[in-house]
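The following record pairs a protein chain with its ligand, magnesium ion.
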Amino acid sequence: MSKNILILAGDGIGPEIIAAAEQVLQRVNTKFGLELTWQHGLLGGAAIDAHGEPYPAVTASQAANADAILLGAVGGPKWDSIERSIRPERGLLKIRSELNLFANLRPALLYPQLADASSLKPEVVAGLDILIVRELTGGIYFGQPRGIRELENGEKQGYNTDVYSESEIKRIAKVAFELAGLRGSKVCSVDKANVLEVTELWKQTVTAMQQAEYPNIELSHMYVDNAAMQLVRAPKQFDVIVTGNLFGDILSDEAAMLTGSIGMLPSASLDENGKGMYEPCHGSAPDIAGQDVANPLATILSVAMMLRYSFREEAAAKAIEDAVGQVLDQGLRTADIMSEGMQRVGTVAMGAAVVAALGGE
Ligand code: IPM
Ligand code: MG
């Protein structure tokens, strides 16, 4: 049966990186006879311009009917001054939350060809392969009450609530344990249990689960400040990291930089049934939009994740990842991963090179 993908290019460099990824999708679709179809929709600033809101009903209904979603990036200075509740980022948070995409997988994998693009010494990062499992629909991002209020003395006060229920912790921990079982069998749960009750419950819940259900997975715990330090000190000690929404947001950017460029990292956001939204970890980079310099590889690798997790097409997923390895072997580099002796290419040429490396036509 044919499967349907919704493509949301978004803002800034979104349309360019998506165009490159779409070529790749087209090629694997034919080459592997996947029978995937896709349509386009609007999210973020592009949707605000067309419909006055970042996640309009028309996009919501397209998203509900899709088997998977491929997203570019949202946001930009053009929409920074509009009211907070309808900013582009709110569209992203809303689609995550409404579709229940609670499990955010952010792999930080170092391509050996890029070891010297990392700001850390090559020996510290060589062979790096970390998977960050970030809870994506709860915690302080969504907790109530939240807002900015005026105190009796007239002073303003901003406030948010960090909250996790046991069931939310269990379902994300399950994802982490299961995925760890398919790779290095180690999970590090990151918290701030020395200060925050919400993460004390997190720690207790994850510990109880490991004891009862995952005795073969090695579980460790780390405070988030230490984890931030360990990631740059000795990142290879980690296999799977599981953590809440805010800590995961921060640590995944940090882990991304270990690999040389955030422009290389894909992500998957999954619901309980494997329906997912796939997007690069980087943002919309408005400063370089429209210049054919953005790195499309994170988006292309997000297509690979989509084929793997939503469609169980491992061979096609692997073919894309191998093709990316090949173009790096050929010495092709976008500006963000450029180093001496390599050939600098733009977004379009990089996408075309991956398509060519896939072969099949
Ligand atoms: C991310 C981004 C988003 C987040 C923003 C754009 C709302 O930083 O996907 O990591 O904080 O989750
Ligand atoms: Mg982030």
